[in-house]
Amino acid sequence: MSWAYILGLLSTAILGLPTSNVLWKDYSLLIVGAIVLGIVAAIAIPRFWRSGPKSGIWLTAGIVAALAIFYFHTRIPQPGASDISQFVTSGKESVQGQVVTVQGKVETMPRLTRSSKGQFWLAVTQLNEVESNGNKGATSRGVTGRLYVTVPLLQATGIYPDQTISVTGVLYKPKPAKNPGAFDFRAYIAKEGVFAGLSGRQVSGIDEQKGVSWGWWLLQQRITRAQVHWLGSPVGQLLSSMVLGNRAVDIPYNIRDQFVQVGLAHALAASGTQTSLILGWIIALTRRFSAKTQLVFGTLALLIFIGLSGMQPSVLRAAIMGFGALIALVTQRKIKPLGSLLLAATILLIFNPLWIWDLGFQLSFLATLGLLVTVPPLMKQFDWLPGVIAALIAVPLAAALWTLPLQLYVFGIVAPYSIIVNILSAPFIGIISLGGFISAIAALIYPIAGSAVAWLLYYPIQLLLGLVQVFGLLPGNQIALGTITIWQLLLLYSFICLSCVIPRVRQRWWLAGLLTITVVLLPFWQNKIEQFQVTVLATDEEQILVIQDQGKVTLLNSGEADTASFTVLPFLQKQGVNQIDWAIALDSQPRLRSGWVSMLESLPVRTFYDSMPRTESRRGDEEAEVTDTKVQEATPSISAMPAAGKAIANALKSQKGNYQEVSRGETLSVGSTTMKIISIDPPIVQLQIKGKSWLILGETKPEIQEQLVKSGNLTKTQVLWWSGEALIPELVESLKPEIAIASSNLVDPEVVKLLVNSKIDFYWTGRDGAIQWTVNGGFETTLDANRDDAALL
């Protein structure tokens, strides 16, 4: 029945991620389908599988699956009538920001974000509007619910759980992922029962607290401070993370990213390794005591570990299985590892069925399953090796085998050196984890003793960091294959399960491996040679275009550093892009070009076209050629441009890429696309993409638009893509576009009226998300937005 319950929860994947937007009737159909499937199985399967489960069991399984779906739906968080998210303004005011002061109780310790801010969860009780909303005036009301709060790092100092504080900032509703495959922040916080966020500016009420209440965070801080005291940063945080888990300790993101990149993310997460060490020490120290005493001490140690590391699915799974092993040990009974794993998963999913879609829970479950069913046959294959070496190879290989398909489905990236890194790092991780636990226990008793023990681990940690850095610098340390489909995922796990269950398949492991690789690589290769897709990425204010042309990739603009790191690179990786064939930098503002540095550090570029002039004299010569238009006038200072261009050229030189400057009037051929540079500043470019004419119009002032119309240099175009600022009617009439695309969070209402009245199809990244165009499919949006443009007016 446990399998029926879990499969029932997995069937909710048909309806997508668990959100409050899915209607009850959709779950009703799924529930009915589970019952019907159980009835069909009860009638049909016993006729063919006479030695299998009886009809009653199949019928009961269908009912259990239906109940699981019903229970899953009832546990999806829903905002109440007084939830603070109900009072977030919509429309134009929501774009400008709603400044409020909220009061509530802090639930978690502040965590450092990638943007160097402090983040914590706040249970709110009071909402006060700082700025009046319309003509109604400022209001104050009691509210309920929780908030995802970010504040400047200095403002987060001194914030602890259970404090009652006031935070002033901008209240907002998180938006869904705007780009294909991007992180869905709205779904992430919705699973926590949170439907609004607060970008805080100022925190008050911290100094009014009379005292600090006890909490697990006090013990976490005591351990972390002791280990950082003599080890320093980031070595101390790394040790604390390997003991308590990365959710309890802030690790610098550069260190965390290096571990993830080489396939050692599990070393920073609290899970089975820590549980095994804890129970091993407890049993060793209490071997002279009775079985009941061992059980009590072991249970107490597991509860303390859960409290210190947090209520994470992976921690709870390891603790439940550890508790089962502890009971079996002290009662001298045998335990079935697979049954224990299934029982642990069932208990956790009854406690919170939404964890079925938690990536940490899924990876922890699959990795443990791999260790249980795959390590024994692998050990037999490596019986010619010493036992310790065979175990070092078999354990990471089994875990990687079972988690790789899910990683491809979610991230689309393979770390080729991960197994080698795991084998080489296993001794260091064992020594550091064991020493870290001794240091943590000592720190709780006497902090200086904990610092002294932690100091002894300095060189092993440095060796581990050096190993990670060396493999992180090797070429091909990450290969983007692109995300696989759900059917590919199911096929891969089917092959893995068959090889574990059927001995004949296991003996022909090379054939199963070949089929597995074919399932992934053949569709990847076929998609590459056939794909032609143009994507306008949804960004805050940058214009970024990606052209995928039968395996060749063209990237136009990078945006700011954060845009390149969190929007452009994740999109390219999930599309299976490992190289940019043509990169074109059109933005003249250094701020909007800063992303090229991180792009070049992550992906090789074969040819880089730079519209930024190296000297002021060259720019003056080009402007002298412009006799009938003033397009090149009214430009910002370019004093910083030569340095930026030099940095890009140096980065390309290390990659053996080609750096070329482009000038006004130049025509480029990038694959099957032709690009003509009409103007450099502001950037104005004409594209011919598969017979369709595009015009890219950068931020252009109305007076310059008038000059463009008078000059007659612009011809009619089919697609107008501009930065969202005001357009004059004469320009639209001159171009007569069929499609208009605005890359902006806010579009001038007068422009919307003009486009609607001219019967021009209008797309807007602030509303529609990323826009993709294919020859056969036409234009498609990432978000299912309301196509009524009147809502913009």
Automatic annotation (TrEMBL):
How this chain sits in the membrane, per its record, is:
Multi-pass membrane protein
Which UniProt keywords are present, listed alphabetically? Cell membrane, Membrane, Transmembrane, Transmembrane helix
Location(s) in or outside the cell: Cell membrane
Instruction: Give any Gene Ontology cellular component.
Output: plasma membrane
- Please, which domain of life does this record's source organism belong to? Bacteria
Q: Where is the ComEC/Rec2-related protein domain?
A: 242-503
Membrane-traversing stretches:
26-45, 57-74, 264-284, 291-308, 338-357, 363-379, 384-402, 408-430, 437-459, 479-502, 509-525
Family annotation (Pfam families): Competence, DUF4131
Domain DUF4131 stretches: 27-204
The record ties this protein, via PANTHER family, to:
DNA INTERNALIZATION/COMPETENCE PROTEIN COMEC/REC2, RECOMBINATION PROTEIN 2
Q: What is this protein called?
A: ComEC/Rec2 family competence protein
